[in-house]
Amino acid sequence: MSDPLGTRPAPGPDQPPVPVRLVTFNTHHGVGDDGRHDLPRLATVLAAADADLICLQEVDRHFGGRSEDVDQALLLSRALDMQLAWGPAIDEPRRDEGLRRQYGNALLSRLPILISDVHPLPGSGEPRSALRTMVELDGAALWVTTTHLSTRSPEERAEQIAAIAQLHTEPMETGVLVGDFNADPRAPELAPLTGRFTDAWELAPDREDRAGWRFWQARRGGTHPARRPHRRIDQVWVSPGVGVTRAHVLDAAGASDHLPLVVDLEVRSGV
């Protein structure tokens, strides 16, 4: 709301932190655990999260029959009325004039996207990338890097993590790193993150997951596989200047083979 009298305090370190709700979700190109491609179902799950930032992995754009050859990133951004930043990992020409066959990471944002760039990651096999964006907050800015690491080996993931860490230089210190890491947060290959980031799940005072009757897995934050989640491979890592008030795993209504992770952040004003 506008402040015609100019009585609103100027942004700065003495002002309250800015709340931001973030979701990270590996969408399995919109194909649920029932084997059906159902983008409206996926959009419904995302809308229910009521997030400011939605970080998606395994998104197709005109990729082929498995996702009905649609532009998933664009359709989701329109359905949710959010800005879109796109980071392909696979980007190949097609016979169709003007179209490319793409697959990768996407950021959907209610907040203004100021900067967006894509960084290919080292490794063999399926190409991987990191999508780095900066979004504008009220009195602050936040760097958001979305990625999907290799399944091939810990050594390959370690190389990818080293490359991603280089993206967060000193002027970009306030930020979050999110995505499908294909490793436990305590895995040795993710250790380089702990010097500059903190695992948001461990930081959150309020946590809830979908362990259900499997009480021995309760509050562990499992997101994969969706039907019996016991692996916490979908993660949010936060830098200094970013607090966490809550983290919870949502029911995805069968929309993917993963479950979405929702994290409520507080970003220090004036950073």
TrEMBL record:
GO terms, molecular function: endonuclease activity; exonuclease activity
GO CC, one annotated term: membrane
Transmembrane regions: none
Keyword Iron-sulfur in record: no
Domain Endonuclease/exonuclease/phosphatase: 23-258
One Pfam family it belongs to: Exo_endo_phos
Record's keyword terms, sorted: Endonuclease, Exonuclease, Hydrolase, Nuclease
InterPro entries attached to this UniProt entry: Endo/exonu/phosph_ase_sf (IPR036691), Endo/exonuclease/phosphatase (IPR005135), GPI-anchor_lipid_remodeler (IPR051916)
SUPFAM superfamilies: DNase I-like (SSF56219)
GO BP, sorted A to Z: GPI anchor biosynthetic process
PANTHER family recorded: CALCOFLUOR WHITE HYPERSENSITIVE PROTEIN PRECURSOR, ENDONUCLEASE_EXONUCLEASE_PHOSPHATASE DOMAIN-CONTAINING PROTEIN
Protein name: Metal-dependent hydrolase, endonuclease/exonuclease/phosphatase family
Organism (species): Geodermatophilus poikilotrophus
